[in-house]
Design goal:
Number of strands: 19
CATH superfamily: Glycosyl hydrolase domain, family 43
Number of helices: 1
Strand content: 35-45%
Radius of gyration: 18 Å
Mean pLDDT: 93
Shape: globular
Helix content: under 10%
CATH architecture: 5 Propeller
Number of domains: 1
Order of helices and strands: EEEEEEEEEEEEEEEEEEEH
Distance between the termini: 22 Å
CATH topology: Tachylectin-2, Chain A
Low-confidence stretches: 139-143
Largest sheet: 4 strands, antiparallel
Length: 298
Amino acid sequence: MGCYLFSYFKEPNGTDGLHLAWSRDGLQWTALKNDTSFIKPEVDVDRLMRDPFVLLGPDGVFRLIWTTSWRGKGIGYASSTDLVHWSKQRYLPVMEHEPTTKNAWAPEIVYDEERRQYAIFWSSTIPGRRPESDNQSRQGPPHPGLNNRIYFTATRDFERFNHTAILHDPGFNVIDACIRRDADSGRYAMFLKDETALPFTSQKNIRIAFADRAIGPYGPASGPITGDYWCEGPSALKADDTWYVYTDRFLDHRYGAVASKDLKVWEDVSDRLRMPEGTKHGTAFEVSEDVLERLLAL
């Protein structure tokens, strides 16, 4: 049995900060610390902590990043060695160099083993930059729509950052990317949400693309792996020999999941999934037994 944690936020808008749940099998999740927050948001004008993502780096440090605002040009960052005591929060201005940027949503991190660096990635819209997608949003003409693409920056120390660049452009409005390395094949899998909203037969589902390296290039997106229901915020976890992709089924106000042995054939296992009430857009990750025991003692 593994030791798994799930980071998530709760309404309204994640204003009370980071929540954590734990599991042994990847399907039965229980809130930690009586479902109270571990860290409250302090940066950016809106003071939000949506889409909290946690990565345990090879240096033994947990790094937390999150969406700070619906219309911000940066993201939040903090670090911890125990998930209880956190560094001072910082605002990372990842898109401030593009003054018309409309958003910086759902940031995540992947450790690039080949380059020994961290790649931070998120979704942003720059009006007019991807005109082929501008009419895919309900905010479409006469108002500029959303043309989200996946952007990234790289760092080794979270002090100095490379210039922001495009990580993935699948040719449609895309948000909520999640990258995991498949140890069996050595490839990186990017799970992403097709955010096409117009026409009314819109997608709103999860697809997958692959690359040989963490920062790509990624191949074309697959067909939907999550069935017909609308969902977002994919997070992937390999528990034993099974891949789980958890999704926020926002119209149903619940969480769902699909499972696969090979990242090709997917089965809906939502009826077996148990999450804390009100869980929103979270991420799953593995921890050691001593980390879990320390958190359970709180």
